[in-house]
Every structure is written in C-alpha cells, then in structure tokens.
Amino acid sequence: MPPPPVTIRPPSLSLSTPTPTTPPPSFTPPPLSFLSGTWHVTHSTLPMWKTARNVTITYMPLPTTVHGQPQLDDLVAYQPLGSAKRKTIAGVDSCARDGGGGAWEWRGKGWLKVASSRWEVLGWGTLEGSGREGEGPLDGEGKGGVERGWVVTYFAKSIFSPAGIDVYTRGENLEVGMLERINEGLVAVGDEGFQQLVETMFEVKRD
C-alpha cells in the first residue's frame, strides 16, 4: 500500500490576495513535545540560506506564557559558506492567539529585540519506520524518546526578510521519496503567490 499523501495547509493569509485562508479540516498543529528540540533546515526559499550551511533551529519550551499562550526559546545556528565560524540568531516565539496552535510570533533577543516576524507550521509528520529512540531527555537529534520527523514552516514577509518556506528534519536528511511527497503537498496548495515561492525552493548545504 502506498504511503498516504502529505497534507500542507496554506498560510493563514493568502500570498495572492490579502484575505484569510481556511486550513484543511485534517490539519492539526504539532504538540510542543514534537516541535521541541533541534531541527536541520534541509530546503528553503529564503535567500539568506543560499550563503549558509549546517542551518539548525532549536525550539525549547519556556515556563512563561503570553495571554495564556505557550512560549518557545528559538535559536537559529548556521555557518557561512567558506567559514568555520558559527553564527546564531536568538529569539522567543509566542503562540499566536489567532493561529489555532500552528502560528507563532517571533521576537528577537538583545540587539534584535526590535525585530519581529510571524511563522506558521504548514505541515508535519513522523518519518516512516523511525519510531522513537531511547527514553531519556531531549537531545535534539531524534534520540532520548524524541520522535524523528519533518516540518514545513512558512515565514511571513517582514521588514528584514521576504516571505519564505523552510523544510526541517530531525536527524539525517530526508529520503527522496519523502521529499517528493512533501513537494506534492506544497504544489497542491491552491495559492498563486505561494506557488511562486515553491518554485524557488533549493537545498540548503550541510556537511
């Protein structure tokens, strides 16, 4: 039996017209236990990752809340091409009240505190045959009882960056078949502006 198709929901605001979109009824946002940990960005449409490699994003739950909504510590790490130096971007994510649990408002830390953006989970799932590894605490690499899987995120346009799509995986790179299923789900989103983004998707370099 072939694997089920991947469901990718449209962003909450259409890229073609300034109107809200309706998520498919089958979409359920990932629980924090699944989202928490370190993810590798394998594919993206964001221009900033064309000159970077080994891009990771680590989400960790915070004890604080905003308007009763959970918050995440958000740490992006990467290395510029041709450099061994590791750079980071730190921020805090607050779950958006209008996002049904699948949208987050990011605010930078330190000198980036003036920067803000919104990102949304458009699709997610576990990797076939991966299950869980171990029973210990989170280690960010799919071990210690953390499910290995994939996530597709959408970043709304901000004053610092254009709108973009990222594909994450926990652990090893995604298999070709899984990538094809994710791409089919992306192509099925009926939004012209979104499809223009999908056509610019590229693989992010990883050592």
Description:
With 207 residues, this protein is mainly β. 11% of the residues lie in helices and 39% in strands. It has an eight-stranded antiparallel barrel. A two-stranded antiparallel sheet has the order 7-8. Strand 4 and strand 5 form a beta hairpin. About 7% of the residues have low confidence.
In terms of topology, how is this protein built?
Blueprint: H1 32-35, E1 37-44, E2 52-66, E3 69-80, E4 87-95, E5 103-108, E6 116-126, E7 132-133, E8 146-147, E9 149-155, E10 164-169, H2 176-187, H3 192-198, E11 202-203
Antiparallel strand pairs: 1-2, 1-10, 1-11, 2-3, 3-4, 4-5, 5-6, 6-9, 7-8, 9-10
Q: Termini distance?
A: 35 Å
| Tally of helical runs | 3
Structural class: mainly beta
Largest sheet, in brief, is:
8 strands, antiparallel, barrel
Sequence of secondary-structure elements:
HEEEEEEEEEEHHE
Question: How large, in whole angstroms, is the Cα Rg?
Answer: 16 Å
Low-confidence stretches: 131-144
Q: Strand order, biggest sheet?
A: 1-2-3-4-5-6-9-10
The helix content is 10-25%
Number of strands: 11
Shape: globular
Average pLDDT, all residues: 86
Any key phrases for this structure?
mainly beta, 11% helix, 3 helices, 207 residues, 39% strand, 11 strands, two-stranded antiparallel ribbon, globular
